[in-house]
Specification:
six-stranded antiparallel β-sheet, 594 residues, TIM Barrel, eight-stranded parallel β-barrel, Immunoglobulin-like, Beta-glucuronidase, alpha/beta
Length: 594
């Protein structure tokens, strides 16, 4: 799906701002059929949960409704008019007036609705968007809705971050021509000093396709005709980690000399490969330094915010990070575009977190029910997961910053049924994009001895918490166990190992001269221990600390106002560990030459 843009043939109107808002109630059936009553308004983009002080809104389970009046620009007659929702967490419905025009499942990828037949250029219409936060055993991520003794609906889920909901990203109104470009796919390669750009342009109807490629000065460096082709760029400047360079591919749809449609796409020429235990970008070994992150900030929840975007990337640069994982869902497209422009490497993850009933068994790793079964996570869940993979790849396939797909976080890969569930999904991801490696983040219950799917993947990403959830406060024992396990993975599989999660909670200002958990000092010592182990094992090709910043979670006796494993506080103040990481990662500058 192409992101809406203003071009010579397309126009775009942003619909962010304050919308009328209401939670679903039996007292107001079919709320899209009239103007929402009451004085409640909600900001778009934002999660609605933290905006209001009313717990009935914050804790509501089910549908909520956003509504506003929209005027169609009078010059849009003759083309197609489309509403695009960048994300509705976790399901969405769009109504133009009284008419349902789109439905979508999945909270982190966009969907749109052609409303041409329901609106008139120059006139207003009522736009209503419903959003549901319900999670079940056939959604991604999964969850369970139960009833409390007093009759309230309660949402339970298996992931350790707050189930924020609503319109957390932008809503757009845009116009496109009747005959238009519907999609573009770009694959780049390098042949000596020459870069190659294979392109494929999909259209709504037959028409002549012309493409040109411009460098950053605006000079045309290659042209092509036809819907599919290859462009060759002599002396190409490559997209590199820490040194981004973007070319602009301009696709045009022509009828004779008449321009029917045009679409620009910024691309980077680079290669990604796995060779033994090495992860190669442009043929050179790359070592990941950075974090698992969250789209999470005070008041906004998961609402996208450009100010936080800029500041977070400034902090990544300050600390010496070169990469991050979009834990545990696809982030806003603006985040990836920013990474493209600034040379930050991204591991792009689906929203498949919580496919592990063993977590209900605590540290025993033995769940009350098998994770993969017709009654728990079966064919319907797998089909939903497959659709998430399709939409993730379709949205993000052209970003040079995205170097790997992560298909799930901490699934029960040690349980029977895991291979039957995941093998088709890995095949699907490879068929959709054969150019990028695939990985998954391995839960602590799954070891190199009992994991049933590790051989299917190109890179092994391990989430490990020796010294925190296991051997808490005993870093000497934790160090021995961590090293033994990493050596076991390296010897068993001969693949790159990325420590995709490792960290310890720390309360700001709590200090001790001893190894006392929850202190800033223990967090520092914990990370230093892991780094000593990494440096002794050649197969380790990256370290992503959990987490970049403290974040909101559901209630739990092991959480103090959220997860405190961030090396920055939730409002982005550095803890002591941030300075230690900066010292380490700044020394790695020569480890990833550009």
């Amino acid at each position: 799906m192409l992101k809406p843009r203003n071009t010579a043939t397309r126009e775009l109107v942003n619909l962010d701002g304050l919308w009328r808002f209401a939670v679903d109630t039996p007292a107001v059936p079919e709320p899209w059929r009239s103007v929402l009553h009451g004085a409640t308004e909600a900001a778009v983009p934002s999660s609605y949960n933290d905006l209001f002080v009313d717990p009935e809104i914050r804790d509501h389970v089910g549908w909520v409704w956003y509504q506003r009046t929209v005027r169609i620009p009078r010059g849009w007659a003759g083309g197609r008019v489309v509403v695009r929702v960048d994300a509705a967490t976790h399901a969405g419905k769009v109504y133009a007036g009284d008419r349902l025009v789109a439905e979508h499942q999945g909270g982190y990828t966009p969907f749109d609705a052609d409303i041409t037949e329901h609106v008139v250029a120059g006139e207003e219409f009522r736009l209503t968007i419903g959003v549901s936060n319900e999670l079940t055993n056939v959604t991604i991520p999964p969850g369970t809705v139960t009833m409390t003794q007093d009759g309230r609906r309660s949402q339970k889920y298996l992931h350790d971050f707050y189930n924020y909901a609503g319109l957390a990203r932008s809503v757009w109104l845009y116009s496109v021509p009747e005959t238009r470009i519907t999609d573009i796919t770009v694959v780049t390669d390098v042949d000596g000093a020459t870069g190659t750009v294979d392109y494929s342009v999909e259209t709504s109807a037959d028409a002549a396709v012309h493409v040109r490629l411009r460098d950053e000065t605006g000079a045309v460096v290659a042209t092509g005709d036809g819907a599919d082709g290859r462009l060759r760029v002599e002396n190409a400047v490559l997209w590199q980690p820490g040194a981004a360079y973007l070319y602009r591919l301009e696709a045009e749809l022509l009828e004779g000399d008449d321009l029917l449609d045009s679409y620009p796409l910024d691309i980077g020429i680079r290669t990604v490969k796995v060779r033994g235990t090495e992860f190669l970008i442009n043929g050179k070994p790359f070592y990941f330094t950075g974090f698992g992150k969250h789209e999470d900030s005070p008041v906004r929840g998961k609402g996208h915010d450009d100010a936080y975007l800029v500041h977070d990337f400034q902090l990544l640069d300050w600390i010496g990070a070169n990469s991050f994982r979009t834990s545990h869902y696809p982030y806003a497209e603006e985040v990836l575009e920013f990474a493209d422009r600034h040379g930050i490497v991204v591991v792009d993850e689906t929203a498949a977190v919580g496919l592990n009933l063993a977590v209900t068994g605590g540290l025993t790793g033995v769940g009350a029910k098998p994770t993969f079964s017709p009654e728990t996570f079966g064919d319907e869940t797998q089909a939903a997961h497959a659709q998430h993979i399709r939409e993730l790849v379709a949205r993000d396939k052209n970003h040079p910053s995205v170097v790997m797909w992560c298909l799930a976080n901490e699934p029960a890969s040690h349980e029977d049924g895991a291979r039957k569930y995941f093998e088709p999904l890995v095949s699907l991801a490879r068929s959709l994009d054969p150019t990028r490696p695939v990985t998954y983040s391995v839960v602590m219950f799954a070891t190199y001895r009992n994991d049933k799917i590790a051989d299917l993947f190109d890179v092994l990403s391990l989430n490990r918490y020796y010294g925190w959830y296991l051997d808490n406060g005993d870093l000497a024992s934790a160090e021995q166990k961590l090293e033994a396990e990493l050596r076991g993975w390296a010897e068993q599989f001969d693949k790159p190992l990325i420590m995709s999660e490792y960290g310890a909670d720390a309360m700001t200002g709590v200090r001790s001269v001893w190894d006392v958990p929850w202190t800033e000092d223990y967090q520092q010592s914990f990370l230093a221990m892991y780094h000593r182990v990494f440096d002794r094992i050649d197969a380790v090709t990256g370290e992503h600390v959990w987490n970049f910043a403290d974040f909101a979670t559901g209630p739990g006796i092991h959480r103090v106002d959220g997860n405190r494993k961030g090396v920055f506080t939730r409002d982005r103040k550095p803890k002591s560990a941030a300075h230690e990481l900066r010292t380490r990662w700044k020394r790695f500058a020569d480890r990833n030459p550009t």
